[in-house]
Please model this.
Amino acid sequence: MKRLKLVNTETGNSDGSSERGEMEPSIDNDRAETALGVGRALVLWSLFFLISFGLGYPTLNRYDARELGPDWVSYYNMVLHQDGPNDIPFGYRVLVPEIARPFYLLAKGRIGSWNPVFFGLLVSNCLFCATAAFLFLLIGLRVLHDLPIALLGCTLYLLNWVVPNLFLTGLVDSSEACLMMAITWALISRRWWLLPLIGIPGGFAKQSFMLFSTLFAATWWFTSKRAERTYPQFLWVATLGGASAVSVVLAHRIVAGLTISPLAMAAWWGCDGSCTVAILKEFMDQEFWYAFGWLLPLGAIRINRLPKPWVAASIATALLTLGLGGYAGSLGNVCRPLFSVIGPVLTLSVATLLAGGPTGNWGSRRTIES
Model:
């Protein structure tokens, strides 16, 4: 049986740790993923899916999410193929609605009082949330070599206010969050060649993915140890930006029949007044504090023990998110993409804090048995 030891973050005596207590991923950490086994992996993914479905259940018949804002109305109409070509910018985020449509057609007239459109959107979003949680589990195993703490991180991730109240209510942000998690997993497992493959669906998910993913991967590369950086890796990062940009343009071409550049699409957003004031208002919105009121202070305590490239990439992309949110006048809506880019690293940091205490010692070393 394979037995994987937990990294001792205080002494740095186990594989993959450093003298100052930072948890560093290594190639040997592939064992942390393979030790799960296919059967256990399928069970965990299915569990994450069912948890997500339970969290999003109220949208089926408890309330009409379309009353919450134009975003919900647009995505609802996209599932029905009743959206207009001038539905900017929502109409070009086709990934979640198109995945939802087959489930809507299967459910129509067969699920009683449940809304079949929101059922399709819920299933689609659950697929992305479950996959994001599972990828988060793999990331946690690579960093910590500890299944219980990684599962605790997944629980905290799914129970964050953003997931049941935004990701699972008929919006499309779950797809961007999932694909950003996939970017993180590809980078931490050194599968750089996966970046452009992830960028292709990313452009169909949301336009902002193109900027977020490229900056995230580039920052990761620049902040990695010099001995670990290679120019082919940076080429994969550039290819990620190109692939996601092409898919953004292609999504517009498919929906509207016109080809415009991502730079021209930036004109869709704009801030009336001072962008600085708009950025400050983001921190005053209640939705920001629902999501980050506990996550930010608790996550900051031990975030320095997580891999430096991941922390740096998350912070840099979070700053970009806040800046773009101010430019677009997003206010509380900024918490959705902000959670997608910095939520995972903060959540895993909170999990290690809760499980390890202030000293970082977990007591007896845990193992994963296959």
